[in-house]
């Protein structure tokens, strides 16, 4: 069984997920990652699983593999997410279903299976990603923000249920960051979001990693069910 | 009795697996030095006279799932809708849970 920290991050092919994978590998962790398509990069200390986070069978198979190879899991970061910015009158039900499947069902499945591994060692750190769109009630993001609101509530209740096992669950809600997720959002809309922040700049991957680092520290054992929103959105 | 799966699974083996899991859960709850109750098929897992509280039962179910996977290569979800909707809970005793697991393994084998 490895002495190194074992970390699972979802949605690692690009963006925040990839940055976090590199970040945790650089500090000596054994990192497992996943995405629907294979990444065009590789890293020593990193193992990739190609799967849909909402596919229960595939998710369970990945955890069986992690259990067999590492015998444990210390940290889970649910980063995988999709968005669709559109007026509610122009949003097909299929879009809502896809968003809920990836953002909520995926987070649910990952957390459930992770807790099964973590509770054996009476230790675990879970960080789920939300968005400033929840606090800001952004028009055009009803489906996306609703899915992330559900993630927040789910995380807070999970935090209570898994606390007796020594597992914490917290949420980080980033501001717009240059990723695939906001590639189709008009520049003007991004500018308005940034203007409404107390700190008027775009977020960075490092900003997210900083909060994640805080939540996953061993010393953060008394912090659970909390949401940290970046950029000073109130 | 033997049930179909990749490897022959005896009911007695499942009883032993559940018993060992329950001992681990109790030990984790009470500490390694504590005297453990004698466990057997009739040991109640829920309701009056149960050896575990609700959180302990959750831990036991997860532990049994993990051991089935680790030791026998069988991946089951024990707390599914079917288990929850049965008139007589499959989690009422070690024996009942063993029967339920054997049924699931047999079904899995039949569908494999």
From TrEMBL, chain A:
Transmembrane intervals: none
Keyword DNA damage: no
Alphabetically ordered keywords of this record: Oxidoreductase
Domain Ketoreductase: 5-177
CDD domains recorded: SDR_c (cd05233)
Protein biosynthesis is among the record's keywords: no
One Gene Ontology term of the molecular function aspect: oxidoreductase activity, acting on the CH-OH group of donors, NAD or NADP as acceptor
SUPFAM superfamilies in UniProt: NAD(P)-binding Rossmann-fold domains
PANTHER family on file: 3-OXOACYL-[ACYL-CARRIER-PROTEIN] REDUCTASE, SHORT-CHAIN DEHYDROGENASES/REDUCTASES FAMILY MEMBER
The family this protein is said to belong to: Belongs to the short-chain dehydrogenases/reductases (SDR) family.
Protein name (Swiss-Prot/TrEMBL): Dehydrogenase related to short-chain alcohol dehydrogenases
Organism name: Anaerolinea thermolimosa
Record lineage: Bacteria, Bacillati, Chloroflexota, Anaerolineae, Anaerolineales
TrEMBL record, chain B:
Protein name according to UniProt: Carrier domain-containing protein
Matching InterPro entries: ACP-like_sf, PP-bd_ACP
Taxonomic source organism: Anaerolinea thermolimosa
Classification of source organism: Bacteria, Bacillati, Chloroflexota, Anaerolineae, Anaerolineales
Domain (Carrier): residue spans on this chain: 16-105
Gene3D superfamilies given in the database record: ACP-like
Domain of life: Bacteria
């Amino acid at each position: 069984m490895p002495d190194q920290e074992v970390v699972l991050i979802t949605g690692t092919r690009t963006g925040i997920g990839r940055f976090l994978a590199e970040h945790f590998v650089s500090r000596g962790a054994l990192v497992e990652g996943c995405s629907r398509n294979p990444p065009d990069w590789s890293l020593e200390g990193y193992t990739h699983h190609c799967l849909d986070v909402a596919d229960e069978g595939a998710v369970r198979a990945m955890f069986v593999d992690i259990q067999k190879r590492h015998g444990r899991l210390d940290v889970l970061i649910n980063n995988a997410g999709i968005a669709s910015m559109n007026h509610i009158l122009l949003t097909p039900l299929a879009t809502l279903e896809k968003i809920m499947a990836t953002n909520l069902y995926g987070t649910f499945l990952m957390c459930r299976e992770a807790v099964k591994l973590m509770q054996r060692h009476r230790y675990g750190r879970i960080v789920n990603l939300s968005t400033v769109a929840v606090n800001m009630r952004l028009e055009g993001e009803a489906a996306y923000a609703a899915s992330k609101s559900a993630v927040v509530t789910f995380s807070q209740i999970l935090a209570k249920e898994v606390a007796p096992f020594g597992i914490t669950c917290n949420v980080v809600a980033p501001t717009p960051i240059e990723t695939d997720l906001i590639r189709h959002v008009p520049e003007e809309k991004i500018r308005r979001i940034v203007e409404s922040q107390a700190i008027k700049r775009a977020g960075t991957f490092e900003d997210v990693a900083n909060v994640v680092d805080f939540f996953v520290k061993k010393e953060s054992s008394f912090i659970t069910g909390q949401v940290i929103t970046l950029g000073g959105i109130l | 009795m033997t049930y179909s799966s990749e490897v022959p699974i005896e009911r007695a083996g499942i009883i032993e697996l559940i018993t060992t899991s329950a001992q681990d859960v109790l030990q984790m709850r009470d500490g390694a030095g504590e005297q453990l109750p004698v466990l057997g098929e009739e040991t109640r897992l829920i309701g009056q006279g149960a050896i575990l509280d609700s959180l302990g039962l959750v831990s036991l179910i997860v532990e049994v799932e993990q051991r089935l996977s680790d030791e026998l290569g069988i991946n089951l979800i024990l707390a599914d809708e079917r288990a929850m909707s049965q008139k007589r809970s499959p989690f009422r005793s070690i024996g009942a849970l063993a029967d339920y697991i054997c049924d699931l393994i047999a079904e899995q084998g039949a569908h494999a």
